[in-house]
Amino acid sequence: MSDLRDMFFEECDDLLEVLSTGLDDLQNETSDAETINAMFRSVHSIKGGAGAFGLDRLIKFAHAFENVLDDLRSNKLDVDPTITALMFSGFDHLSDLVDAAREDNDLPDSDGAAVLAELKQTTQNANGGSGDDEDDANEVSEDDFVALTLDIGLDLGGDDEGPGDLLGLPTLSPAADGATYYVVTFKAEPVLYARGHDPALLFRALGEMGDLTVAADRSEVAPLESLQDAPAAISWTLTLRPDDGIDESAIREIFEFVEGQCSLTISETVAEDEPEAPEPAPAPVEEVAAAPVNTAPKPKAKAPAALTKTEKQEAKGGDGGKKSSEPRNSTIRVDLNRVDRLINLVGELVISEAMLRQSMNELPVSANSAVSEAIGQLKTLSGVLQESVMAIRAQPVRGLFQRMSRIVRESSRQAGKTSRLVMVGEATEVDKTVTERLVEPLTHMIRNSVDHGLEKAEDRVAAGKPEMGTIKLEAAHRSGRVVISLSDDGAGVNRVKVRQKAEEKGLVRPEDDLTDSDIDNLLFRPGFSTADEISQLSGRGVGMDVVRSEIQALGGRINLQSEPGKGTTITISLPLTLAVMEGMLIEVAGESLVVPTVALRETLQPGQANIHDFCDGDRGLSVNDSMLPIVDLGEALGFRTPLDDFNNQSLLLIEGESGRRSALAVDGIVEQREVVIKGLEQNYQSIPGIAAATILGNGKIALIVDTDQMIPSPGNGNPGLRKGSELAEVNSYV
Amino acid sequence: MSEQATLEKTDDRIEIVSFTIGEQAFCLDIGHVLEIRGWTSTTTLPHAPDYVVGMMNLRGAVLPVIDLSMRLGLGKTIPESRHVIIIAHIDEKSVGFLVDAVSNIITVNTEEMKPTPEVSSTKTTAFIRGVYTLEETIVRAIDVHQIMPQETLSAA
């Protein structure tokens, strides 16, 4: 049961994503007829699933939501901004309900009550204020079934020709009180009887799910004189008022055993609040019994009509998504641990392959071309295999972004601002772990953007900006990393205020000389919060420093750029995969190191280089009219004392995230190769200047240089170096 | 040292791996020890504490090797092939301890552990949990949690 439950909630996530995509399409006016159908199906499926688990609130809400979508679908309602806004709120509450149900929590009753009422009101208005929840509601009563209703608790009669028993019992009219009804039509094929099934037992099981009314249609029963035993002529119409937690799939389950042996339709209707249409008159028992042949033609005439309608509904509404013929990619759900195990194994395979290749090369003459050809193929294959395996974990960031669109709406409402979220590059694929762990930091960043970034409406108008603020969330692959940026068109960082605050909190001294970017980055310092009043949204003092540490834990970097009056952009750069990369194998001070190829722009030999000396032994390299700082890798990593000259060095021109460049001086360049990334944090800790490690073909470990930390930034010194000295201090203690 | 000290089987009985560094004997709870290997070359780490020899490759896993002698303030070990690395798993991390030689696996009663003498060396009190006396030999019980490389500030 718990497995099923988990599966339901996983499905809910997918369905909510479909719904959210549809909402976005509606908002951006890129929707078509199928959009609303898809949305309807999603909500309907959630409702169906919720029914199976007895999640009443979810059912109720999904039902109201679904009705509005249905009205949209049947053009009783038009899509306008009010409706879209209502549906966004509806979506938010629906996700809340799903989450609450998943966690087994109960939301406060007041939550979503307004949205629910509004949804209901909308449906009501759309349906001419008649109070009709759904137009199909009347179908049952309109149709002139002689609905002879039976108490299923009574003996239905064991024999197949039981209509005689079925008739003649007091009729229970379906209570019309806005509840959901299921109308089931059932006609057994002869084979059903032949296999010893008994409809009465099925009905009895159905009767345990709620109040059941059963009507038999005997119109096809041949007169007694010509009666033969073969054809099964009776069909039944059953109206079920389900108990809580019963849904269509539960009903279907009952008939599962006779699948294919009967014709079965199940449709769902909602009775209105006041009984309107005349209930089918409880036919006097005697009359019906006396004149079965006379009453028969009526149901016969009407029954097809009813069927058409129910079929239509099935076609419209889908059948809890199960029978929906909508083309979809077929997917399977796999335990993430299994995928990870596969990824690890493939990683090992790639290492073994490299080792094999290396030992082949060390053989005297690799004369055997067949072997080297096979090894070449093995290399290609293992590369493709690795890529494919990594792709399993990759997921588009769409889901993540859509969650954020909700955060924007909520925080805007709470902050009393109007804003919209623009998403770019939602299809960008990122490792699943990364998307999951980005939720918290992104949420925080968005709240900050709305709360601190965007100005109040009147200030915006005064500044000549549109009243509605724009928050832009953008994802892209950039040189082997994923870059996610969040920008707002707000006022930008108030540097005077930030500095003042930082001084008050003792984070900086008044006499410190700080660049604009230094001040901006004070926002990432622990315990910093600029909001004058602590708002509900942000300003709890756990601010951007938490965001930054979370991003760093993912191997990412975060960077803030702000332009006064124009807005603020926060850029997060993350590794694409946590497993492989292209690297340049180099040698420094007798150690083998790897420089990621993504950062590499050019390699230079000393003869080509034009090196100039500056203060404190700093050196610059003039390349194409610009001067780049030279970083001696051996010195930066503390492997050796500074070199006197770079005559025997090779220079690697590298470019960092920020676009800044520098030249790394190394002893020698060995080769370019693919390396498997092995984290250092797992068994040790992160090391300044080093991103990770890898294992070379000879089994030795080579460290992977963190190129970004090897690029000195103005006023910041060389982070790698600076941290080295900090470390030395720390280590001198014990 | 003898095989298997003959002790009453109680719940307090544990097995320890004893090893030597210079003239001194130390021990680890066997529960922490994964395997014992001969010396293999390591990759030097930049900005690492002096007691971290480097990183070693253990069948595809990358783990740090700690010079226990240096860590305990007994002087730097110049690793040779006669040295031994004890691979241990402590606090969810795998680590290699470089020691001179592994002596024995002994069953001891934890109640027999005597407190560390109150000496002034912070290293002694921090890293040695107590001592066992086994046939005239003092075996120092290492506090595995303290001996691990301490997380250094990792500001970016």
Automatic annotation (TrEMBL), chain A:
EC assignment: 2.7.13.3
Pfam families hit by this protein: CheW, H-kinase_dim, HATPase_c, Hpt
Annotated GO MF terms: ATP binding; phosphorelay sensor kinase activity
Domain (CheW-like) ranges: 580-716
UniProt domain HPt: residue ranges: 1-101
UniProt domain Histidine kinase: residue ranges: 442-578
UniProt region (Disordered), positions on chain: 292-332, 714-734
PROSITE patterns cross-referenced by the UniProt entry: CHEW, HIS_KIN, HPT
Swiss-Prot/TrEMBL keywords: ATP-binding, Chemotaxis, Kinase, Nucleotide-binding, Phosphoprotein, Transferase, Two-component regulatory system
Known catalytic reactions: ATP + protein L-histidine = ADP + protein N-phospho-L-histidine
Residue numbers of Phosphohistidine PTMs: H44
GO cellular component, one term: cytoplasm
A biological process from GO: chemotaxis
Biased composition (Low complexity): 292-308
Coiled-coil stretches noted in the UniProt entry, renumbered to this chain: none
Ranges of Basic and acidic residues composition bias in the record: 309-326
Keyword ATP-binding attributed: yes
SMART domains linked to this entry: CheW (SM00260), H-kinase_dim (SM01231), HATPase_c (SM00387), HPT (SM00073)
Record-linked PANTHER family: CHEMOTAXIS PROTEIN CHEA (PTHR43395:SF10), SENSOR HISTIDINE KINASE CHEA (PTHR43395)
Protein task: Involved in the transmission of sensory signals from the chemoreceptors to the flagellar motors. CheA is autophosphorylated; it can transfer its phosphate group to either CheB or CheY.
Protein name as annotated: Chemotaxis protein CheA
Organism: Shimia marina
Lineage: Bacteria, Pseudomonadati, Pseudomonadota, Alphaproteobacteria, Rhodobacterales
UniProtKB/TrEMBL annotation, chain B:
Gene designation: cheW
Chain ranges of the CheW-like domain: 13-153
GO CC annotation: cytosol
GO terms classed as biological process: chemotaxis; signal transduction
InterPro entries assigned to the protein according to its UniProt record, in alphabetical order: CheW, CheW-like_dom_sf, CheW-lke_dom
PROSITE patterns noted in UniProt: CHEW
Pfam family, one: CheW
Name of the protein this chain belongs to: Chemotaxis protein CheW
